[in-house]
Amino acid sequence: MRVGVPKEAAANERRVALTPDIAGRLTKSGFDVTIERGAGTAAFFPDEAYTAAGATVSDRQTVLQSDIVLQVQAPLAAELPRYREGGALVAFFQPTADFLRQLAQRKLTAFSLVLLPRITRAQPMDVLSSQATVAGYKAVLLAASAAGRLLPMLVTAAGTLPAARVLVLGAGVAGLQAIATARRLGAIVFAFDVRPAVKEQVQSLGASFLEMAIEEHAETAGGYAKELSEETHRKELAFLAAAVKDADIVIATAAIPGKKAPVLITAAAVQGMKPGSVIVDLAAETGGNCELTEPGTEIVRNGVSILGPLNLASTLPLHASQMYAKNLSAFLGHIVQDGRLRLDFEDQIIRDTCVTHAGEVRKS
Ligand code: NAD
After folding, report:
1. DSSP 284
2. 128 CA distance to ligand 1 centroid (A)?
3. What is the β-pairing status of strands 354-357 and 109-112?
4. What DSSP element (H or E) covers 32?
5. What is the pTM (predicted TM-score) of this model?
6. pLDDT value for 206
7. Dihedral of CA 244/247/249/252: which sign?
8. 322 a catalytic residue
9. Cβ neighbours of 213 (radius 10 Å)
10. Which amino acids bring their CB within 6 angstroms of ligand 1?
11. Mean of the per-residue pLDDT values of the chain
C-alpha cells in the first residue's frame, strides 16, 4: 500500500505529516512511503533523511496519487482533482459541509483527526492533545518575550525582582502545559477552569487553583466543558475581572468543542490590568477568550499587549511534526489491516473520524 506525504500548501504551515524516523518505521512494516520533494524542509527534515530511512522522494503529482495521502492541513479544494479517485486521505481539519461535499465528489475516503474520540485506546493517535501541548508551551514563551519583565524572582546586587504572576484560563491540555512551562520559568502560577475535576491536576503542577462557586454542572460525560448559563457566565466575568488585575501574564486557552470560544476577559477587564502585562489568547482561532483579541496579530490597549496567535504548533515544527507523525502512524496502524483499509464503522475511532466514503458524506 502506497502512502504519500505532500508538502503542506498553506503559507503559515511548517509541519510535515511524517518525519523520516516514522517514514522508516512504516517502510519496515510493509508500507511503500513517498514524500514530496522538500515536504520536510521547513520542519528541518531534509529529503536525504527520508531516502536514508527507506522512503522515496518524488513530485507532487505522484504523491497525491498514493493510496493514502497523509497531511497536516486539509487539501486545497482546487487541488482535489489531482488526488486519486477512490483513494484515502488523513488530515487534521475542521470539516465544513461544502468541503465534505467536494471530498465525497472525488470519492475520497477522508478521515478528520479533529474528530478523534478522546478515549483511552485512541490516546496514541490524539493529535488534538499533541499539538495543544506544543501550543501551550509556546504561548508562555511568546508571553515571556512580550512582557517587559523577567519571570523568576531574582535577588541581585541591583535589587530584588519579584516573580511574575501568571494566570492560566482553561486547564485542558494546552493550559496544563502552559502552567508547567510558566513554573519552569519561575513564575507564580494561578489557574482557573469551570471543570472542578482539573483542580488536582493544576495543583500537582505547583499552581494555585482559583475557586469560584459554580452551581451548575459544567462538564459533559466525555470530560469536556459545557457552555455556561448566562447568569453563571456573568458571575465568571466579574470573578475573572478581579483575577486579571493581579496578573502580569494571562494565558487564555478556554474552549468548548464545536462552539465559539467563551469570552472570559472583557474590554473593561483589560482596562483594569497593569500596563506592561500581556495576554496570549490561544483561543484566537475560535474567536478568542478576550473581547479585544484580533486573531493573527498583536495589539496594545492601555499598555496591555494582547496576542492572538494562530497555528502556534506550526512555529515549533520539528517537535510538532514528530508528535503528529507518531500519532498518524498509530492511526494508520488502526485503519489499515493486511495492506487494506479496514472500514469497520462499528469501531468508534473509525466511525467518528471517517467523514466521507464511497461518494457519501458521513458527517453533517
Ligand atoms: P479544550 O481545548 O476543549 O478546552 C480547554 C479548557 O477550557 C478545558 O479544560 C475546559 O474545561 C476549559 N473551559 C471551557 N469553558 C470555560 C470557561 N467558560 N471558563 C474557564 N474554562 C473553560 O480541552 P482539551 O484540552 O481538548 O481537553 C478536554 C478534556 O479532554 C479534558 O478533560 C482532558 O483531560 C480530556 N482529554 C482526554 C483524553 C483521553 O482520555 N484520551 C485525551 C486528551 C484530553
Report:
1. G
2. 11
3. antiparallel
4. strand 32-36
5. 0.96
6. 98
7. negative
8. no
9. 7
10. 118-120, 122-123, 126, 128-129, 132, 169-175, 192-195, 198, 223-225, 228, 236, 253-257, 262, 264
11. 96
